[in-house]
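U., I forgot to send this yesterday:
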Amino acid sequence: MGFFMRRDVLIVGFGLAGWALTESLKTHGISFVVFDPLKNYSSKSATGIFNPIVLKRFRSVWNADAIMEQSIPYYAQSKYKEAFHPTSIYRVLASVSEQNDWAVASDKPDLSRYLSPKIFHNPNANILTPFGMGVVEHTGWIDTNKLLTIAYRELNHQGCFAEEVFDYNALEVSKEKVKYKNIEANHVIFAEGVGIKKNPWFSNLPIVPNKGEWLIVSCKGLELKKILKSSVFVVPLGEDKYRIGATYSREFKNNLPTEKGKAWLIAQFEKLTPLRYELVAHSAGFRPTVPDRKPVIGSHPEHKNLWCVNGLGSRGVLWGPYLAKSLVEALKNTQMVAPALDLTRFGSP
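Result:
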């Protein structure tokens, strides 16, 4: 990109939010360039489950139906078929009380579409579920690493990707436009995840890094075809391999996996099966979270051509496309950002 360019939008960050923005902008015929150094980040290491139900409390997430209807078609595109894995989630029930809670929840109007009222009693003796399982429909998982790799190759081929760290000091902002090195644009959208803390325009947003650890194990004989949810998710990856995760921690020293995290994950998995297994991988990453559990999107109060989308937390797969669509509509002045998501709810960034 050594020559002068004119683009409508610059996107900083290529996790799930940044990727979803590229898809939404293409739909509207809006030109863009993405900036990302393609180092390790949370989206490529995310478990990638899409599920609109809070399975600990049996309630739906905010605006669940609209989020599902707007987000899932992004992943169902034919070019992403190798990354898209629709499947049910089997929620392990821990007691008779939870069985009763499930029956009540499955009868609620906002949950009945997703929760099957019948308790499923598992015939597989290698999966320990004495109180049965509740089945969650219209769910699944995304291979986020594969998804972002496919998208990157396409964007790079089209000349829409700059594999570099974005230099805040090189950005010139005026009322009508922005200029970054040799590129002139109308808007900049920052989708940086926990990296937002270094951003001179949005660093005061209450984005809290939350560390998550997960395992990949090989367990012959488990024969699990659906996603299992107890205190952890167990996601079948194929060839007897399963992903187990994840931990949640706001107190950490670095981004490295820990023995404490591994021990806890192993203990949770061993509650679910008596089978022997082999540890294949142990990894860690950061989720950008917000105190009120909703993402933040919107424009800077003084520089209206600078935008931010962040705080997707552990539901980045669901939130990403929905937020991208909302932000692009706001950018085009066709629809306001929902007040529940607008970054101004926390005051000036």
